[in-house]
Amino acid sequence: MSNQKQQKPTLSGQHSKTRKRDEKERFGPTQFQDCIIQSLTETGTDLEAVAKFLDPSGAKLDYCRYTETLFDILVAGGMLAPGGTLADDMMHTDVCVFTAQEDLETMQAFAQVFNKLIRRYKYLEKGFEDEVKKLLLFLKGFSVSERNKLAMLTGVLLANGTLNASILNSLYNENLVKEGVSAAFAVKLFKSWVNEKDINAVASSLRKVSMDNRLMELFPANKQSVERFTKYFTEAGLKEFSQYVRNQQTMGTHKELQKELQEQMSRGDPFKDIILYVKEEMKKNNIHFMKAFQKIVVLFYKAEVLSEESILKWYKDTHVAKGKSVFLEQMKNFVEWLKNAEEESACEAEEGD
């Protein structure tokens, strides 16, 4: 008995109907990979030719089913095993991000390939974000050069809107942070991002995903300080970005201080405990509370912790030299208000007599 499937007879002139989704070639992941790699190898390193191949191929090859495989190939040259290593028993190609030249111009060209592909096939957008998140978690498995290329590419893709800044959450992985991989990667990434967009655009993107106040976490807990962060990123050529992070950190610290002071006052904590807390915070954060000094004094005044007399006396003759001009300038308007209020009270008292 024959094992071959018998062909059913058809009526003369009958046309078989084929659904559009069935027109895609039915490949397993290995066959899909081999087809993509062979075609990329044939196009060579001409990225315009690569884009021209990828654009129409989505109609024949099942990009939707094999999204991860597709992006693994375009980035690493083949399917990635867990941890970020290339599978030894699979085909590889040199037409990929990791084997390209390590410079911003080349990564900008690759960014255009990804951008065009995702614009053409919108369903790839979510899969691409998942791919980048995975690649960031695999950073330890890549060489320094591969990390640098991926960082530059990611920065460009963040700048042109292909990627959302939320993908950077992968950089807070404990092991990546502990070994300094996250900070080194972030330097390259932000350099390419700031190169494409100004610091305000970068700050806006970070703020939208609530990451503007978490950048210090790129360093291990025992190395998280404004001074260390500023030094590290400034020496890497990101002085403007360092200043932005310093300002964000200072603003956040000020808000936390004011919130804590208000809570302590509302609880009726002893004055000596409140003063001790302020001193400890000021010591821990060096002179970064200078801008918040006036707000702290006003809080104490409203809570009747500081009197008019003590504030006016301090303003006149008991302040220390360090930060003198900054403190006096901050307090100028408030002191003037206190003086005027005091004079009005005196006038009202005289009229009452």
Automatic annotation (TrEMBL):
<feature type="compositionally biased region" description="Polar residues">
    <location>
        <begin position="1"/>
        <end position="15"/>
    </location>
</feature>
<keyword id="KW-0804">Transcription</keyword>
<dbReference type="InterPro" id="IPR003307">
    <property type="entry name" value="W2_domain"/>
</dbReference>
<dbReference type="GO" id="GO:0016020">
    <property type="term" value="C:membrane"/>
</dbReference>
<dbReference type="Pfam" id="PF25504">
    <property type="entry name" value="HEAT_5MP1_2"/>
</dbReference>
<dbReference type="InterPro" id="IPR016024">
    <property type="entry name" value="ARM-type_fold"/>
</dbReference>
<keyword id="KW-0010">Activator</keyword>
<keyword id="KW-0805">Transcription regulation</keyword>
<dbReference type="Pfam" id="PF02020">
    <property type="entry name" value="W2"/>
</dbReference>
<dbReference type="InterPro" id="IPR051245">
    <property type="entry name" value="eIF5-mimic_regulator"/>
</dbReference>
<protein>
    <submittedName>
        <fullName>Basic leucine zipper and W2 domain-containing protein 1-like isoform X2</fullName>
    </submittedName>
</protein>
<feature type="domain" description="W2">
    <location>
        <begin position="122"/>
        <end position="348"/>
    </location>
</feature>
<feature type="region of interest" description="Disordered">
    <location>
        <begin position="1"/>
        <end position="27"/>
    </location>
</feature>
<dbReference type="InterPro" id="IPR057397">
    <property type="entry name" value="HEAT_5MP1_2"/>
</dbReference>
<dbReference type="GO" id="GO:0005737">
    <property type="term" value="C:cytoplasm"/>
</dbReference>
